[in-house]
């Protein structure tokens, strides 16, 4: 039995859930239609280029959580799951998860998207463990700030090792599946790195290092 670790966005689902949540908020009229859309697109481009300023991104991304009640956010997320996420869950991703379950592996999603967005997605996929960016809460409301280290790039390794300290698992024989060159630090940490529908940079590295390359979309 090993740890099977998965990136979420554009790996197990065929979209970026952070970006899709931003689009959903725009559709609800919940954010400034010009400034927020411009920021959402700019941050997505920066992420793909590997130049994302995570602090600046989170300042914008977590503000709508602070600006709305938990009840309103929960209602929106239910709609978001049905309209934006469910159509983009990849059947082959569910088959891959099922294969690891059958092997007796422990499933874990490690994502740079925040816990509010991703926890219901992980639950829908039947993945018990999730490491995500943690939005800070005070008195039952989101503050708009982040709690702890964001699980982005090298931060994924830091958060994973913090998580492992409280568990009986190790990285011996571990797998990690990702589409993004931003995840190279964690891909280099595991015994079985797998590039899933990789971006051009990750594909080049995977080919050079003879890592497995696979598609969950064909």
Automatic annotation (TrEMBL):
Which organism is this entry from? Answer: Halomonas citrativorans
State the UniProt keywords alphabetically. Hydrolase, Magnesium, Metal-binding
Supply the Pfam families for this chain: HAD
The name this protein goes by in its record: HAD family hydrolase
Q: Where does the secretion signal sit in this chain? A: none
Q: Which InterPro entries does the record match to this protein? A: HAD-like_SerB (IPR050582), HAD-like_sf (IPR036412), HAD_hydro_SerB1 (IPR006385), HAD_sf (IPR023214)
Repeat as UniProt keyword = no
GO MF annotations in UniProt: hydrolase activity
Output the lineage of the source organism.
Bacteria, Pseudomonadati, Pseudomonadota, Gammaproteobacteria, Oceanospirillales
């Amino acid at each position: 039995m090993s740890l099977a670790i998965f990136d979420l966005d554009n790996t197990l689902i065929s979209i970026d859930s952070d970006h899709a949540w931003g689009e959903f908020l725009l559709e609800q009229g919940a954010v400034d239609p010009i400034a927020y859309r411009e920021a959402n697109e700019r941050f997505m481009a920066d992420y793909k280029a590997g130049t994302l300023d995570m602090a600046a991104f989170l300042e914008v991304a977590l503000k709508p959580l602070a600006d709305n009640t938990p009840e309103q956010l929960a209602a929106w997320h239910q709609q978001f799951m049905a309209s934006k996420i469910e159509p983009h869950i990849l059947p082959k991703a569910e088959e891959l998860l099922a294969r690891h379950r059958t092997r007796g592996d422990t499933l874990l999603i490690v994502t740079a998207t925040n816990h509010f967005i991703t926890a219901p997605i992980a639950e829908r996929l039947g993945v018990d463990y999730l490491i995500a960016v943690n939005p800070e809460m005070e008195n039952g409301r989101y503050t708009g700030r982040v709690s702890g280290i964001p699980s982005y790039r090298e931060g994924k390794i830091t958060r994973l090792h913090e998580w492992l300290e409280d568990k009986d698992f190790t990285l011996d024989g571990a797998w990690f599946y990702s589409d993004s060159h931003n995840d190279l630090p964690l891909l280099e940490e595991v015994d079985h790195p797998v590039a899933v529908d990789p971006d051009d940079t990750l594909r080049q590295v995977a080919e050079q290092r003879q890592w497995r390359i696979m598609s969950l979309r064909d």
